[in-house]
């Protein structure tokens, strides 16, 4: 390690950092992100009934695509007269839109019994989201031009919803990257109070972010693991957040070492040696945690885990590989106007805000410990009322046309008409007999056929995303249970199966992540009590963040539920990233305790790391909150919960709870290891020897 530090920090190390940035830029420009080969089951849980139905439907020659439903209503919400119905029938018949089929006969246009609306079911022959979005866009333009005056045309149905979902991500990568970089730049300027310094870490992390996107998508392509539009967005936020945190920790330690070392190269080598252990431990914890997503039943969730693991590795390589050389080459002036000079008191020796907080905690340790636990318990109480499951109508921050049209359609037609359930079977006669007259089933009609399979389109009496519709799907499956090669699919069935798969993923991945994080802490600290307590504090933070999040979503924002997949992702990132700050604190505590004892060591560590960890936490919280710029509710919910959790962890748990527990337990906090002053002389010798080797 000493050889590596000398390689990264020397008179020519600027070239090492510059070379790494150039390699990253060449990777971005030369390779570019891999293109996705989407499949119908990418976002569906493996092995479920609805997934098999989607796979079979995809093989039917008549079903190479989706279905759009054109809804026609009067502008004044009145009844359509005969002349308008005839004009609409002619308009539909005259449609000439690429990849959109126009049905023949009287079923080309169906008027509602109440006369207030009419619909036309139009198959869309596109095999991917991009093609579907383009076809639906052309269809909407054609309908707007063809409908008579006084009539409004809207497009809904599965194809319309898919198109509007794709529109969410139009320009999303650029918008998200620009917003994230802007937020990071502002917070770095505030943190460093320097007009120059922030440019160095931002440049390094920015290139790392885009390099990670390229390498992650290329790796997923080679592994044959699917990903979706949100994968690169979450990856970008994670790399920016974690990478900037690592940079903050390194720069803070470097500035502190400059207060006691005239030679800036020696100062950086010491800073790198003392920072690398915490960064490597933190990064390892995050990588191990996100890789647990590879056990998910949902293919795109597995892809997200692999992509995030690649992103963290890239962030560590760039921050520890490029940043030291670039900073040292700039000289002390890069910190202007607050240039650190030799002889200035170090952070651990000063009387900063965080030292005063530590002293307050030390005076009333038990009170602070109990008080913090009570606060977290109160915040977590919101979990008792939380409801999992987000209806389709609430999945967008701004309601798109397909959703509003679907709601209007349900006022004049059976509620399930906008998105019928499907049954694929090799015995359509027996399947129809089982479904006819079943409670909640409005109608059953034959659909596509091929290779011995037949699709049945089943209109439900209730809205597709309602609990009543889900109950009907369960009754359908019970009625068809005795029939081989018969599967129930469609949006409602997929929602039921996704809820079951999400519950299974939480049951499997939650405890595994906790065990792996605990194992990493045991190896890092070579203690038992401290790792267990740190994991428990992170769990408490997660519960409190989710509880507060539910109050925000249900009370402030008016959502009826939490997306099924959000708690798992929030748990993963909060546990993995929350442990980061504890690692930064306790590794510095262990270092200080070797010379000053556990009690004073904790207070000195809090004083030394309080500012940088708070800055890192605020920055990470703000970066994840940036997910709210995307109008998809699941990402906004994820960003809000992580933002709340990181702030709680940074400002309350790491600042008050962990120090109070360590102060209460004293030497027992580190059991069975001893880090107290009994070994001070030996530790001091070790420090001197290590410094000379560096």
From TrEMBL:
It is a multi-pass membrane protein. It comes from Nocardioides aurantiacus. Belongs to the resistance-nodulation-cell division (RND) (TC 2.A.6) family. MmpL subfamily. Its main location: membrane. It holds the Pfam family MMPL. GO terms for cellular component: plasma membrane. Gene3D superfamilies: Multidrug efflux transporter AcrB transmembrane domain (1.20.1640.10). Coiled coil: none annotated. It is found in: Cell membrane. This is RND superfamily putative drug exporter. Residues 211-329, 535-663 form the SSD domain. Keywords: Cell membrane, Membrane, Transmembrane, Transmembrane helix. The chain crosses the membrane at residues 174-192, 199-220, 232-251, 278-298, 304-328, 365-386, 507-525, 532-553, 565-584, 605-630, 636-665. InterPro entries: MMPL_dom (IPR004869), Mycobact_MmpL (IPR050545), SSD (IPR000731).
């Amino acid at each position: 390690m000493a050889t590596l530090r000398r390689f990264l920090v020397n008179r020519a190390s600027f070239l090492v950092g510059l070379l790494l940035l150039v390699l990253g830029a060449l990777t971005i420009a030369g390779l570019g992100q891999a293109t996705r080969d989407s499949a119908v089951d990418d976002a569906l849980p493996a092995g479920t009934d609805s997934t098999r139905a989607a796979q079979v439907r995809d093989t039917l020659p008549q079903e190479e695509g989706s279905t759009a439903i054109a809804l026609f209503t009067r502008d004044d919400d009145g009844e359509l007269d005969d002349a308008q119905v005839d004009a609409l029938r002619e308009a539909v018949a005259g449609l000439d839109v690429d990849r959109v089929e126009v049905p023949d006969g009287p079923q080309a246009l169906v008027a509602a019994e109440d006369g207030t609306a009419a619909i036309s079911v139009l198959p869309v022959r596109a095999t991917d989201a991009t093609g579907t979005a383009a076809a639906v866009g052309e269809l909407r333009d054609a309908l707007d031009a063809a409908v008579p005056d006084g009539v409004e045309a809207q497009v809904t149905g599965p194809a319309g919803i898919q198109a509007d979902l794709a529109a969410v991500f139009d320009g999303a990568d650029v918008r998200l990257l620009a917003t994230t970089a802007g937020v990071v730049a502002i917070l770095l300027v505030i943190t460093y109070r320097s007009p120059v310094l922030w440019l160095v870490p931002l440049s390094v992390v920015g290139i790392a972010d885009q390099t990670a996107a390229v390498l992650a998508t290329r790796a997923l392509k080679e592994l044959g693991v699917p990903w979706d539009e949100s994968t690169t967005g979450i990856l970008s936020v994670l790399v920016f957040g974690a990478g900037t945190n690592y940079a903050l920790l390194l720069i803070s330690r470097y500035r502190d070492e400059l207060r006691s070392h005239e030679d800036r190269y020696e100062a950086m080598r010491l800073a790198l040696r003392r920072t690398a252990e915490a960064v490597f431990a933190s990064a390892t914890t995050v990588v191990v945690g996100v890789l647990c997503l590879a056990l998910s039943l949902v293919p795109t969730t597995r892809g997200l885990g692999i992509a995030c693991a690649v992103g963290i590795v890239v962030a560590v390589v760039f921050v520890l590989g490029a940043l030291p050389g670039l900073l040292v080459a700039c000289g002390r002036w890069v910190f202007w106007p607050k240039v650190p000079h030799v002889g200035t008191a170090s952070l651990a020796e000063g009387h900063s805000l965080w030292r005063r907080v530590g002293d307050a905690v030390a005076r009333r340790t038990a009170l602070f410990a109990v008080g913090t636990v009570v606060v977290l318990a109160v915040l977590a109480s919101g979990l008792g009322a939380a409801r999992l499951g987000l209806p389709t109508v609430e999945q967008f921050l701004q309601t798109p046309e397909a959703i509003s049209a679907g709601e209007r359609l349900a006022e004049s037609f059976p509620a399930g008409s906008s998105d019928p359930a499907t049954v694929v079977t090799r015995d359509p006669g027996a399947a129809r007999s089982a479904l006819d007259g079943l409670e909640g089933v409005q109608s059953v009609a034959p659909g596509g056929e091929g290779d011995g399979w037949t699709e049945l389109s089943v209109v439900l009496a209730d809205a597709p995303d309602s609990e009543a519709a889900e109950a009907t799907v369960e009754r359908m499956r019970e009625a068809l249970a005795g029939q081989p090669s018969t599967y129930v699919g469609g949006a409602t069935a997929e929602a039921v199966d996704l809820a079951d798969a999400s519950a299974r993923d939480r049951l499997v991945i939650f405890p595994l992540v906790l065990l792996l994080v605990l194992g990493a802490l045991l190896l890092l600290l070579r203690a038992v009590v401290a790792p267990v307590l740190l994991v428990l504090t992170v769990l408490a933070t997660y519960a409190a963040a989710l509880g507060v999040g539910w109050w925000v979503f249900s009370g402030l924002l008016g959502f009826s539920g939490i997306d099924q997949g959000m708690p798992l992702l929030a748990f993963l990132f909060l546990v993995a990233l929350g442990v980061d700050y504890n690692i930064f604190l306790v590794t510095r505590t262990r270092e200080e305790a070797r010379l000053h004892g556990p009690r004073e060591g904790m207070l000195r560590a809090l004083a030394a790391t309080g500012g940088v960890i708070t800055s890192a936490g605020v920055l990470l919280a703000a970066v994840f909150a940036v997910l709210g710029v995307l109008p998809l509710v699941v990402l906004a919910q994820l960003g809000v919960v992580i933002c709340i959790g990181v702030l709680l962890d940074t400002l309350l748990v790491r600042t008050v709870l962990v120090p109070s527990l360590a102060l209460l337990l004293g030497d027992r906090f580190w059991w069975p290891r001893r880090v107290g002053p009994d070994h001070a002389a030996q530790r001091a010798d070790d420090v001197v020897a290590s410094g000379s080797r560096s």
